[in-house]
Amino acid sequence: MINKGPHGRTVSFATKNPHSSASFDSKYQVEFLLIHLFSDRTSSPPMSNNPIITLNIGGTLFHTTQRTLSATGPTSPLASLPLPSPSSPPPFFDRDPDLFSHLLSFLRSGFPPPSSLLPSLLAEAEFFSFPPPLLLKLSLPLHFNPFSLSPSLSLPLNGREHISSVSISPSSSVLSVARGCKVTTFTPSLLHKSTVLTPLPFIDTVLPLSPSLAAAGAKDFPGLHLVNLLETSPAKVLHWSPHPSQENSSTVLAIGYSPNLLFSSFESCRRNSSAILAFDLEKFEPVLEIGRKEIFAAEIDTAIPSTKLSWINNLGLLMAAGSHAGPAGFSGYVKFFDTRSNRLAYEIQEKNSDCFADVAVSDSLLSVFKIGVSSGDVYMADLRKIQSFDNWVFIGEGGRRSGDMKRKEGLGCKIECYEKNVFVSREGEVEMWSEAAMAEGEERVMKRNFMGRWKEGEEKKKITHLAFGGNRMILARKGEMCLEVWQS
Amino acid sequence: MSTGMMSMKTETDMERDGRRVRVNVGGHHFETTTRTLPLSDVGDESASTLGEMTTRMRMLMLADSDESAFVDRDPSLFSHLLSLLRTPHSIPPIHQLQQQLIHEASLYGLPVLSRFRSALAPPPLLGYDSSLSATLLPASNPFVTALSPAPDGSVCLAHAGLISSYDSALACSSTLRTHLDRITSLSRLPSPHSQQPLPVAVAGSLHHPGLHLYDLARGTHLGSVLWSDPSDTRLYKSWVTAIAPSSSSSTSSPLFASFEAPHRENCILCVDPETLQVMGEIGRQSGIAAKSAAAGRVVHLPQLGGAVFMSSVSAGAFGYSGYMRLWDPRSGDAVWETSEPGGRSRNSSRFGDSFADVDVDGEQLALYKVCWKSGDVAVADLRKLGDDPWIYLSDSDAVAGAGGGVSSIVHCYKGQVFVGRQSGLEVWSSAAGSWRRNWVDGEEEARRGVVRHMEAGGNRLFLCRQGLDGVQVWQTSCFSHPTSLSLA
C-alpha cells in the first residue's frame, strides 16, 4: 500500500523551514498528486514564492507555508490567507488547536491521521471547507483493492422499510439509500448519517449528486425529484411532458450521471412513449431528449423503456438498456448514444433466448458485460469492435445447478463494473471477474474470483443491491435492515 | 489580498462571531470568541463560583486587551468543553466525563452552562429516523407504570410505588419511595429551588386516594390534595385517574387532575401547586355511563386561552366508546364536546369506529385520534371544531391501518404523530403537504411487546412495552453507529 514512506520520515509539527516540506522524492510526488494538486513540486522554488504563514488557532500559533495551505482548495478560508505583515495580528480561527495540528500534519505529509480521531477531524475539515477529494483522502486512506475486499462493517437502518435503491456519488463519495418514502445519506466516512422524507410515496431509484442534493424517482409517481438532503423541503421536480394532454405525469425508470449532465429515463403515464432526458447539473434545465420512442403497432421494441443508464466517459457515450419479459420470453436492447450529436452510435439487440438479466459497462475495460437470464452465464462485448450482430463473447458459466433448461438461472442477479473489475451477485454470494495478466498483444482473458469466506452451514440472504465507491463495496440483502460494507 | 479587505473581513467576523476571549486555564493559553463561550456582559455572579474570574475575563474582553485572565482549572477539561461548544452534537463524551464537564461549564456562568447542555442534547427527534439509544432500567421494581419527561430530556419514572428521576444525560439521579403501592399517573412541576434541577413530582394512583406532591431533591412529601365537598359526604377517598402534564415552566401555573369517587362520580380539580389549595372544580358528573366516566387524559392548553381538554375511553365486549370535551376553566362551561359512537358519524361508514385513544398537540392546536376498528388516524383543528372536524390521514400505502386499532395509543410531538399498535410503533409526519407513514421500530423490536405508555420530551421518545421492564429511549442520531463484521 502507498502509506509506507520510503524514508520513514516523521512529520514535524509547526515547522518553520519552508524547504523541509518540499523534500519528497519523485515517488512521493506521484502518490500525493491528489493532495498537492495545486502546487508545483518539481523544482525547489525560492522562499519568496512560498511565504511562511502564521495562524492563531484557538490561542495556539501555527507556522506553515502558503503552499501547504493551498492544497485545501479555493473554497477554504485557509487557502486565501493574507501574507504576514508586522502590523497585522495572525489570522484567528476559533477551533481546537490539537485537532488542527493533525489536519496540518495531514496537509503536510498526506499520511492518514489516527483513526480514533477521524470523526472529529472530518468535522474540522468540513469547517475549513476541504474539497471532496481531500475529504475522501482523509477518511479513506486506503485504495480499492478488489482482491482484499472483506466484510468489515454493518450499517444499521432505522424502521422497517425495505431497501429499494443504493447508490454512491462518484464525485463526492456520499452514499444514499432509498427506503419507502425516505432517503438516508451517509457521509464519505460512513460515520454520520441523515434522513429526509421525500414527496414520493415509494422511491425506486436514487442517485446522490452532491452532499446536499440527490435525484430520486419512482415508477408510479411522476417527476424526477431533486431532494434536498439537509432539510425536508424539496429542491425541485423535473418533468417530461411528451404530449400536451399528459403534462407533468411521466414517471422515472432510471437515473444516470455524467460529469456535467444528469440523465433520466422517463415513461409517459399511459406507457405509450418513453425517452431519456439530459439535464445540466447547474440549473437542471433539460438539454437533450435522447432516443424518444412512441408505441408503434404491435412492435414490442418500441414499448420497452430504458431501465439502466450508464455513462462511458472514455468514449463520451451513454449506455441505455431495457428489457421486457413476455410470453415469448425475454427481449431487450443495449443502446449507445452519442450525446454531442444526439444520435444512436450502436445498438445490441437481445432477441435470443438468453437476454440479459442485468448489464453493466466498464469504462476502463471499454467493454459491456451481461449476465444471461436463462443460463446465468457471464458474457462480454468489446466496445471497440462492436458489430451489427453476435457481439457477446462467453466468458464464464453461471454454475447451473440442474439440467433444467426452463429455470431462469440469471433472474435477480446483479452485475456492476468498478474500476477494472466486474462484480456479479448470485443469490447471497458475490463473484468478481478480473482481467488475467497476459503478454502484450494477446487476447484479453477475464477470470472469475470468489469473494469472502465460505462457512459450512451458513445461509446468506439474497443480495438485492450492489454499489461501489472509494475503497468500498456496499451490499444490501433481502429483508435485512442494514447495509453490509466490504472494505479493502 | 489587500490588507484593507482583510480588516473589513475581521470586522464582519467580529459582528458574527462576537468578541475575542483570551484565557489562561491552568497554564494553557486558549483563545476563543463570545459566540463559542457566551460570557454575558451582565454579571450573574450569584450563579458562578468563579464570578471574580468571569468578571475579569469580561473586563479584559471589553477593553480588547492582549492580557489573558488566569483560571486555576484543569486545561484538558477546558479544552474538551471548548470543543463541544464549538461543534455541538459531536461525539458525546462518556457519562462520567459528561457530569464533570457540566460542572466545569457551570463555573463559567449560566449562559455557558445552557449552551453546553444544548450542545450535549440529542438532535431534533425525527420519528422516521430514530433508533433505540438506551433502556432505563430501575434497579428495583422495574415495571414502569407512568412516566413524565421534561423539555430538557430528563424524565421521571413511576415504577410500582417508587419515583425515579433521570437527568438529561439519562443517569439516575434520585429514587423516592412513596406510600402508594402502584402509581398510575405522574406529572412534574418545576423545582421550587432555583439551584436544584430536580423537579417536584405529582403522583396519583387508581388504588389509593389523593393527589400527592413530592420534592425529589429533598425526598420529602410536600402534601396531598383530596377532593371533598362539605355538602356531599359520599365524596370519600376519591382517587386520581389522570394528571395534566405540566404545560409551562412557571411554578404558578395551575395543576389539573381528574378525580373519581368510589361511587364513580368524577370531576377535574384545578389546584394551586404552591399552596395546594383547590382553586376550582370543573365538570362534575355522575360517572354512571360511558359518557360521563372519569377522564383518562387531561391536558391543559395555555395556548388556547387556558382551555382544558379531557377524554375518556371505555372498552368492552362490543367495542370502544368514549367522549372528549374541551372546558373553559374560567366559566366552567364545556366549549366543545363529541362522543363516539354517535354524532355526525352515525350516518357515515365510520359509525361504530370510535376512537381508541386521542392526544392533543398544544403547540400546533390539533387533536389526533386513532380509531379502534379500522386503526385509522384522524386529525382535527382545535380552532375549527364542529360536529365532525375529523380529517383522516392517508398514505398511498393501502395497509395504513393494518391490524386495527385495538389497544392502540397515540402521542403527538412536534408535529409528528406516534401510534403504538399491536403490529408496532408507527409515526406520521408531514412532507410537502401530505402525511407519510413510517415505522419507528423494526419487526423484531415490535415482537417484544405492545407499547403501553409513550411520552416524548427533549427530543427523546420514551416507551414502555407490555411485559418488558424498563423504559426504552428512542432518539434521532446523526451518527451511523456501524458495527464491525470482521471475523475475530
From TrEMBL, chain A:
Superkingdom of the organism of origin: Eukaryota
Pathway(s) this gene product operates in, as recorded in its UniProt entry: Protein modification; protein ubiquitination
Pfam families associated with the record: BTB_2
GO aspect biological process, one term: protein homooligomerization
Region (Disordered): 1-22
Domain named BTB: residues: 51-145
InterPro entries: BACURD1-3, BTB/POZ_dom, SKP1/BTB/POZ_sf, T1-type_BTB, WD40_repeat_dom_sf
Skewed-composition ranges (Polar residues): 12-22
Protein's name according to its UniProt entry: BTB/POZ domain-containing protein
Organism name: Carex littledalei
TrEMBL record, chain B:
Domain named Potassium channel tetramerisation-type BTB: residues: 21-111
Protein name: BTB/POZ domain-containing protein
Top-level taxon of origin: Eukaryota
Database matches in InterPro entries: BACURD1-3, Beta_prop_At2g24240, Quino_amine_DH_bsu, SKP1/BTB/POZ_sf, T1-type_BTB
Residue span(s) of domain At2g24240-like C-terminal beta-propeller: 145-476
GO biological process: protein homooligomerization
Sections of the chain in a coiled coil: none
Pathway: Protein modification; protein ubiquitination
Organism expressing this protein natively: Carex littledalei
